[in-house]
Model the fold of this input.
Amino acid sequence: MVSYKELGLVNTREMFKKAVAGGYAIPAFNFNNMEQLQAIIQASAETKSPVILQVSKGARNYANQTLLRYMAEGAVEYAKELGWEHPQIVLHLDHGDSFELCKSCVDMGFSSVMIDASALPYEENIALTKKVVDYAHQYDVTVEAELGVLAGVEDEVSAEESHYTRPEEVIDFATRTGCDSLAISIGTSHGAYKFKPEQCTRDPKTGRLVPPPLAFDVLHEVEKKLPGFPIVLHGSSSVPQEYVDIINAHGGKLPDAVGIPEEQLREAAKSAVCKINIDSDSRLAMTAAVRKVFDEKPGEFDPRKYLGPARDEMKKLYMHKIINVLGSDGKAE
Ligand code: 13P
Done:
């Protein structure tokens, strides 16, 4: 058993309380390799933003859970080395799908876990979530749960259609499970193809897809039912079109990739939404930078010469999200 406290990590409790009261959101960036982690920590340390390092089940299998634990511990030390005196870093399991997986993460130094039982019938979702909460809380590890279903594909999680969260269920769910935060479905979705072209309109000038707006009415209903309760938005990449263009201009093929407009995320961050999940945008930044080097310098074979620019691009992206979209800069001095 390794406690996250020994690794210098924190859970999400205080962080979320302050974010809800302060009208901003904490970035939850997925990672599975060193360059991503360096970019996340550099951006967070430079902006003094609390940050959630997210690891999906797929990432855990890819990177190895022991290595991840030491990477997170190293991230705390690296942050201090960069001059961030009191780093507020959470190591979080994204989309845990079983009690055993969540338990194993709690036991291996994670400070927060998500149990995603949203695909199960309501009562089963409650039972499994409560079981994880009862275990995790013994070790002061916080638990995120989910109600409603997001569309899209992300690692092992995929769903054809979304179902908005039903606001009439949230009080019962939060009370009976004891979860610390709740992911809701209001129209965001995982991946770089968040909407089918037939769900969108097209900008007549650029020909680009314009996605349908998020269901803010559902979010506001949830907020009314659970005042001050931390709400989480998954699937919140914006799919920056400049990255899509670079990828496509350098041999890639991402037709009609579309994300959530940043103005809508900015609006959500001001509400009880206190954690915003971003994974695809970092994948796109990395891929765009790597493709550009491969295309423009076909003789290059030193990984540092393409992973270095990829890391710089990801750092730029993370800083932009923190400062201009989530508003979490300066919140962890
Ligand atoms: P994106 O695919 O929009 O980045 O969403 C990531 C996410 O929700 C991780 O759980």
Residues 126 and 291 are 45 Å apart (CA to CA). Residues 303-326 form the longest helix (24 residues). The first strand starts at residue 26 and ends at 30. DSSP finds twelve helices and 13 strands in the chain.
